[in-house]
Amino acid sequence: MFQYNVRSMHAARIAELLRPFLTARTGADIQSSPESAPGTIDAGQAATPSTSQLEYISIYIDILLRWNARVNLTAVRQAEEILTRHFGESLFAARQLFPVPPSYSPLAKPAGADAAVRRVEQGAATSNTRVIDVGSGAGFPGLPIKIWAPQVHLTLIESNHKKATFLKEVARALTLANVDVVTARAENFSGQAKVVVLRAVERFGNVLPVAIRFVTPGGRIALLVGDRQLQTAHQLAAAFRWSEPMRIPLSKGRVLIIGSKEPV
Hints:
Layout: H1 11-18, H2 51-68, H3 79-97, H4 114-121, E1 130-134, H5 142-148, E2 153-157, H6 161-173, E3 179-182, E4 193-199, H7 204-212, E5 215-226, H8 230-236, E6 241-242, E7 246-247, E8 254-260
């Protein structure tokens, strides 16, 4: 069993490269309003990962690079590109789904700020929040979402046995609790979750209808897709209320859209 003691990247460099993905809700360079309540997290305020989160990401990259030398997990081979292409995009989605990071604590609530704080707090993950990542591959976006919001109960669906073994190794090395790796085709899975995520899967038009049925009433599905897949998403999930596409920072033609399923 490997001991992952060598860090591919320093924490400060990881934080620097992730900053564009954790600053603006839509990927735009929006400046925080000076009237924002201290301690709240708004669209333009950078959410800084904790020391432990940065360490987890560094270990994860180290494991991925080692495994990628013998198992084709990602075509991206350089640590910094892995960080921006995979972790950045995944954490961009994580912040939209769960705007309140686990360390969030309002420092002050001046007059008139309570409503804004309550809106932010609605994005907090709890131990009852289930997340399903369909076609997880090398763990994106599911595992970075778990690192961002460790309270969630995460299910990773991956039919490739070698990739599923890798996912289990990452969860073990990072000592992540409540992570289930399901080695099966998504079509054969019968669970449901409050949040379902889907990114960079083959046969998108075939997989999306399967992912949709995993969403509980009142739940959400988050799609990390290319511009050309937006029309397919709207056609196949017409019953969902969709957000406006959110441009993913530093990407070409990549967006995040979140659909909400009407409660029963």
